[in-house]
Specification:
By secondary structure, the protein is an alpha/beta fold. It is built from 12 helices and 13 strands. The protein binds magnesium ion (MG).
């Protein structure tokens, strides 16, 4: 029995941020959520999505409606690689780029939802099936506008709840401010909690090198996005100059960009984001690429999808805790003893609230 796509539609839903989130270069304004719904001749409907943190959502929607979705009708939804490749090459003049990768991801995640439903399997198993529970670290207590006391209180609360790690934003104007904040948290939690830091691409190579040297005594698990993502050379030099693993990936938009980073030694932790890389199909390629270099994957944001993907692969290390779908889901991701549990139902495993989604449609 074939599974031809008979209907393809896209729409945009705006979600208010669940808490104020700031870093060295930006604030999370709202989650523009781009949904793609695909129905097939064998009676299934898959729902996929991608996101922005506040700008560009209507551009993604226009690319889908004007160019990508019309190509899908009649295609066999089981041929995920063929569809991904066709859509990628059909946008060749505007690819690789953030808008096209986000559009591809909303289609690809819908195709994987269909694939999992058809197989009667949850995503974590169909995408690889390594283990169902993954360590979770918290970012919600580490935003840059929070005071040192608030950072300490947040880290202690995470530790008390049994979480294995917390992430703190860095990039205050002066080095000593960053160091004092990190030192206060380390002194409060002791050696048993992983602490990661994130500069959100805000530094130059000389400044990042200086800060990394000062951060080393705090015992950090990684230094995330120290430099602009297109400065591969700077990342390679920085990685060679510090014992702190350099984490990159949330601002890379293709498998080949990851290949360049990993092969050059510019990434010690791979943070591939399923929306920004173009969907589950390329996400898995990046995760397997990282495995061949003996690197761990700690994906960026989107914990509701990344819990299943991180659980699927042997080198999945951590899921990032930033809840942002509560307004449009009926139940939350399960967390047990600081570990996220991948859903065991067929499909992507996100418990969408269709009425709440409809209420928040803006286009
Ligand atoms: Mg980050």
């Amino acid at each position: 029995m074939s599974s031809a796509i008979v209907r393809a539609e896209a729409y945009l839903v705006d979600l208010e941020v669940e808490t104020v989130r700031t870093d060295a270069v930006q604030a999370f304004l709202k989650q523009e959520t781009i949904f793609v719904s695909l129905s097939t001749s064998d009676g299934l409907t898959g729902l996929g999505y991608s996101y922005t943190i506040g700008t560009g959502g209507t551009a993604v929607l226009a690319l889908l409606r004007d160019h990508l979705l019309p190509r899908l009708v009649g295609a066999d939804a089981r041929n995920v690689e063929a569809i991904w490749s066709d859509l990628f090459w059909s946008t060749h003049a505007t690819t690789v780029g953030a808008i096209s990768s986000l559009a591809l991801a909303s289609v690809d995640t819908a195709l994987w939802d269909l694939r999992c439903q058809r197989a009667g399997e949850p995503l974590w198993r169909l995408a690889g099936g390594y283990r169902q529970r993954v360590p979770l670290y918290d970012t919600e207590g580490g935003w840059l506008h929070l005071s040192t006391d608030e950072l300490v209180a947040g880290a202690l609360a995470s530790q008390k709840a049994g979480w294995p790690g917390v992430k703190l934003k860095v990039g205050k104007p002066r080095l000593h401010e960053d160091v004092e904040r990190l030192r206060a948290v380390r002194d409060a939690v002791g050696p048993g909690l992983d602490i990661m830091v994130d500069a959100n691409q805000s530094m130059t190579y000389p400044e990042a090198r200086r800060r990394a040297a000062a951060f080393e005594a705090v015992d950090l698990s990684w230094f995330e996005e120290p430099l602009p993502a297109d400065d591969l050379t700077g990342h390679v030099h920085l990685a060679a100059s510090t014992s702190i693993p350099i984490a990159v990936g949330e601002s890379l938009y293709s498998v080949s960009q990851f290949r360049e980073y990993v092969a050059a030694g510019g990434a010690g932790i791979v943070q591939v984001d399923v929306a920004r890389v173009g969907g589950i199909t390329p996400w898995l390629k990046v995760a397997h690429l990282a495995e061949t270099f003996n690197l761990e994957v700690c994906p960026h944001f989107l914990m509701e999808l990344h819990v299943s993907l991180t659980a699927a692969v042997p080198n999945g290390r951590y899921v990032e805790h930033i809840p942002q779908l509560r307004a449009i889901t009926r139940s939350e991701m399960t967390v047990v003893d600081g570990h996220a549990v991948a859903p065991d139902v067929p499909g992507l495993g996100i418990d969408w609230n269709a009425d709440a989604i409809d209420d928040r449609r803006v286009a």
